[in-house]
């Protein structure tokens, strides 16, 4: 097969007073994109846990008021020391800890939560407790905390986790503890942050303290609803970007019930979630798609959400993990009939295409491999990063597949791939340089699980992404 290769320059990120390619370097030098309405953001932190687990998290938050060095003597560009929080810090933000924003589990509570041999039963009791405590924290405080941290104690994690399985989760039947905590955040209008014991007990097996501090600070800044850490410097102002995905519902026949959601992105750095109708399965494949009416409805919702803060877009870009079904396309096109520029793009993993360079490092991030006479482009979203002078990943990187719809494609493949590279840098659960998948696709699974849990329990869902992350 005949191939072409090309390279796409690393997208820049925009911060308060300048641009940078590396999120951490940009935050340290220029400050967050929007630090808050007053120029300094005070993040009121709520805490739920035992006295010990709360003390451990408070100790970490207080230590984050100072510089936290790296463990290694050799400081790498992509792993700088944590620069500290506070009024004069690069983050222009401080944590506010007040006793009235804390809710402690007593020994009696712990005994009640951990009394059963069945982890599932213990999780059920724990969730009932968490529901009540979040409700109290929200209603007895004026103003309430901006973010509530759930500091999971070791004894609760042990009692609520099945042993002998990889990546064990705290579950009660189909109910996942993480997802339910997020539904409580939706229910009581307060974003949440889970911190497991491994994130505060630094024994050398997990992330370093500086790494945890970096990621936690970025996540809490965004979840506080005051600040946005950064935005992509050159996303088009008149373009609406959205990723459409499917998730499994948690009622009825769970093997068949799939529903749709979309995450909408604006050039301002804002992100919203909208939810659509159930999906139907293709006759001879495992893929799901929307009916014409459902497809029209979800794109109508996408554009309505976009126009709440901006004029009608000149261009609409839709990302999906499966090809666009003819019925779907008809509905999407009907809803966007007045949008002059449209791009429908399939993004997936798993194709067995690899590029082997002659040197010691993997291919450059931004390398595009294109089989001639096809609409497929194999994009390396991870790889050697010239601005970091290294490859900041643990495994040999593989490309993602970018496929342009043959019927709905206004923009060049190079611009489409550049935008996808940009969206790999917008995951505010982390401060790392980039992720493999763009956030238009990556977050769909976790958001879908939370939506399924919320709708199954009759909880009103909100469009703002910070409730789900």
From TrEMBL:
InterPro entries: Piwi, RNaseH-like_sf, RNaseH_sf
Gene3D superfamilies (alphabetical): Ribonuclease H-like superfamily/Ribonuclease H (3.30.420.10)
Domain Piwi, first and last residues per copy: 147-456
Domain of life: Archaea
GO molecular function, one term: nucleic acid binding
The name this protein goes by in its record: Piwi domain-containing protein
Native organism: Haloarcula sebkhae
């Amino acid at each position: 097969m005949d191939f072409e290769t090309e390279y796409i320059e690393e997208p820049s990120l925009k911060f308060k007073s300048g641009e940078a390619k590396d999120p951490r370097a940009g935050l340290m030098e220029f400050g967050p994109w929007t630090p808050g309405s007053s120029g300094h953001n005070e993040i009121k932190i709520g805490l739920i846990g035992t006295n010990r687990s709360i003390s451990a998290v408070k100790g970490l938050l207080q230590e984050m008021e100072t510089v936290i060095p790296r463990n290694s003597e050799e400081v790498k560009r992509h792993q700088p020391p944590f620069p500290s929080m506070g009024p004069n810090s690069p983050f222009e933000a401080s944590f506010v800890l007040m006793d009235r924003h804390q809710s402690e589990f007593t020994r009696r509570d712990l005994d009640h939560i951990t009394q059963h041999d069945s982890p599932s039963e213990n999780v059920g009791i724990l969730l009932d407790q968490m529901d009540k405590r979040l409700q109290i924290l929200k209603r007895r405080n004026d103003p309430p905390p901006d973010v509530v941290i759930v500091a999971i104690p070791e004894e609760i994690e042990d009692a609520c986790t099945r042993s002998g399985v990889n990546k064990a989760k705290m579950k009660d039947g189909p109910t996942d503890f993480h997802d339910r905590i997020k539904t409580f955040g939706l229910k009581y209008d307060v974003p949440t942050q889970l911190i497991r014991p491994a994130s505060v007990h630094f024994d050398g097996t997990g992330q370093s303290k500086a790494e945890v501090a970096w990621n936690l600070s970025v996540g809490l800044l965004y979840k506080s609803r005051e600040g946005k850490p950064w935005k992509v410097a050159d996303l088009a102002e008149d373009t609406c970007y959205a990723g459409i995905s499917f998730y499994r519902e948690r009622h009825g026949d769970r093997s068949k019930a799939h529903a749709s959601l979309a995450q909408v992105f604006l050039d301002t750095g804002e992100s919203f979630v909208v939810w659509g109708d159930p999906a139907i399965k293709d006759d001879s494949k495992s893929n799901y798609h929307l009916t014409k009416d459902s497809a029209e409805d979800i794109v109508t919702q996408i554009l309505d959400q976009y126009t709440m803060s901006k004029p009608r877009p000149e261009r609409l870009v839709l990302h999906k993990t499966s090809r666009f079904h003819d019925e779907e396309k008809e509905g999407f096109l009907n809803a966007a009939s007045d949008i002059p520029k449209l791009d429908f793009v399939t993004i997936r993993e798993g194709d067995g295409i690899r590029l082997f360079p002659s040197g010691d490092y993997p291919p450059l991030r931004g390398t595009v491999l294109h089989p001639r006479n096809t609409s497929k482009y194999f994009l390396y979203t991870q790889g050697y990063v010239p601005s970091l002078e290294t490859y900041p990943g643990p495994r040999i990187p593989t490309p993602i597949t970018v496929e342009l719809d043959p019927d709905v494609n206004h923009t060049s493949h190079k611009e489409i791939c550049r935008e996808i590279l940009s969206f790999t840098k917008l995951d505010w659960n982390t401060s790392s340089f980039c992720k493999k998948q763009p956030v238009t696709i990556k977050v769909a699974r976790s958001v879908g699980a939370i939506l399924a849990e919320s709708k199954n329990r009759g909880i009103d869902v909100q469009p703002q992404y910070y409730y789900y992350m």
